[in-house]
Amino acid sequence: MAKVLNFIKDSYVEITEKVTWPTWSQLQNHAVVVLIASLIIALLIFVMDKASSNVLELLYGTAS
């Protein structure tokens, strides 16, 4: 049981004293970067899906 308590104490000390937490503005900037990257990836997947759909419709002749 002592080992578990030491682990919890050490973990708390590490989180509160040794970890460098980002500032609020850094978090906002990173969130914007993730949002933009997600939108770009979603757009690329959409374009690839439409392109492959059009190619398959052309090959199978089922274009409406």
Break the fold down into its secondary structure elements and pairings.
Blueprint: H1 2-18, H2 24-60
Quick structural summary:
The chain has helices spanning 2-18, 24-60. It is mostly helical and 64 residues long.
The largest sheet is: none
Work out the strand percent: under 5%
Structural class by secondary-structure content: mainly alpha
Gyration radius (Cα, Å) is 25 Å
Order of helices and strands: HH
> How far is the N terminus from the C terminus?
70 Å
Output mean pLDDT: 93
* Helix count, DSSP H or I runs of 4 or more residues: 2
Low-confidence stretches are none
What's the total count of β strands? Answer: 0
The 3D shape can be described as elongated
The percent range for helix content is over 70%
Description:
This protein is mainly alpha-helical and 64 residues long. It has a domain at 22-64. It has two helices and no strands. The chain is elongated and about 70 Å long. The relative contact order is 0.06. The model has no long low-confidence stretch (mean pLDDT 93).
Please name the defining characteristics of this protein:
2 helices, mainly alpha, elongated, single chain, 64 residues
